[in-house]
Automatic annotation (TrEMBL):
GO terms for biological process, alphabetical: folic acid-containing compound biosynthetic process; tetrahydrofolate interconversion
Gene3D superfamilies: NagB/RpiA/CoA transferase-like
Record: residues binding ATP: 3-7, 131-139
Protein name: 5-formyltetrahydrofolate cyclo-ligase
Highest rank taxon of the organism: Bacteria
Top-level class of the enzyme under EC nomenclature: ligase
Binding annotation for substrate: 50, 55
Keyword set, alphabetical order: ATP-binding, Ligase, Magnesium, Metal-binding, Nucleotide-binding
Length: 186
């Protein structure tokens, strides 16, 4: 399938899910994260969920990372296809942007070179680790600035598609994708 077809399909499938079910699936998915060998790392970038888009709820994962004393880094969109990363602290204040994404207002900027693990939002992914995001290129640009060994983990409430037909040379593949049913390793 083509990316634009997959975007439409998965946006519709998400809207069919209740918030209660989405919460349960997000907790199950978070528990699967414990099985991935990432716990010796220090800096974890994680997206903040867009509630009305029914994205995976990342709050349980953030709570887990805090419980393991990890440095949590959250994104703020700063320009055309550009993300700036901020350390999440007890004093971090948030404001929703035009896409209703909660973003840190200010704080301690963390360079891409320090980030060990990135949890990536997506709409769909395939069995080869290709992903479909919202089509703005923010995460591909951001991941291109990270170290080559940075671990890239997608989070999805749905399982993999067989294939995404229109992969671009700048698309960054995942190392893992976690669903409530399965951990995909690429």
């Amino acid at each position: 399938m083509l990316k634009h077809e997959l975007r439409k399909k998965y946006k519709n499938l998400r809207q069919e899910k209740s918030f209660s079910l989405l919460s349960d699936l997000s907790i199950t998915l978070t528990n699967h994260v414990l099985q991935i060998p990432i716990w010796d790392f220090f800096y974890f970038h994680i997206f903040l969920s867009i509630e009305q888009s029914k994205e995976v709820d990342t709050l349980p994962l953030i709570t887990m990372l805090q419980g393991k004393d990890k440095n949590i880094v959250v994104p703020r969109i700063t320009g055309e296809s550009s993300i700036e990363n901020y350390l999440l602290t007890d004093s971090t204040k948030f404001k929703k942007n035009k896409w209703h994404i909660p973003e840190p207002v200010d704080g301690i900027v963390v360079p891409e070179s320090k980030i060990d693990v990135v949890f990536i939002p997506l709409l769909a992914f395939d069995v080869k680790g290709n992903r479909v995001g919202y089509g703005k290129g923010y995460y591909d640009t951001f991941l291109g600035k990270c170290r080559k060994e940075t671990i890239k983990i997608g989070l999805s409430i749905f399982n993999a598609e067989d294939r995404i037909d229109d992969i671009h040379k700048n698309d960054v593949k995942l190392d893992y994708c976690i669903t409530p049913d399965k951990i995909y390793r690429f």
